[in-house]
Write a structure and sequence with these properties.
Two copies of one chain form a homodimer. With 110 residues, chain A is α+β, with helices and mostly antiparallel strands. Chain A is built from six helices and three strands; from the N terminus they run H-H-E-H-H-E-E-H-H.
């Protein structure tokens, strides 16, 4: 009887490796009031749905998706698919390892 | 004989007050590899001429002026006119007061 190997299905949502996260890209990406607000909403470490984040900021879905995509592509957030829903979390440990102190600066400043 | 008052000539080069420096604007502005490099060149606290900075980065004057203007307008650098020459310095104390730790993050990270 042939052995059936269960293939590990690669995530369809690409994220940069921690070592590939670029400072200039992160700064440029969080250097937008709305995206900075998204980072702050995620700062407590709780994973939140795309829908919840959009509703917290009063954004249309298309606008929210756009900003969340930029944050993910820059390496600032992680997006996890669960069915049709997407769940977002801050890559706080990865950012801290790569750029010590940066997240604190983003959260501290008025 | 009329008294001639020597008017204090206001600087023609506008700079935002420290309290008006916005985090998102600073992040967006330094979130460009070339402007980040300019910040690092100025990190030793030495004032440098526009010409020197442009030559250090191998930039045409127009490109250099553009990036230095963005840094000044964001509140990251101070530009002082001396004759036809312009001298640039990092507003390190102002940035530190407003966003503690930010400059260190910019200088530390690879």
């Amino acid at each position: 009887m042939p052995t059936v190997t269960t293939a590990v299905r690669p995530s369809k949502i690409p994220h940069p490796d921690t070592d590939a996260i670029e400072l200039a890209t992160v700064l440029r990406t969080v250097g937008d009031p709305l995206r900075l607000e998204l980072v702050r909403l995620l700062a407590d470490g709780v994973e939140r749905s795309c829908t919840e984040l959009q509703s917290r900021l009063g954004l249309p879905a298309s606008t929210g998706s756009y900003h969340l995509r930029l944050l993910r592509e820059a390496g600032v957030t992680r997006t996890r698919a669960a069915g049709t829903q997407r769940h977002i979390s801050l890559r706080r440990d990865d950012l801290e390892r790569r750029f010590p102190g940066l997240v604190d600066v983003l959260l501290r400043a008025g």
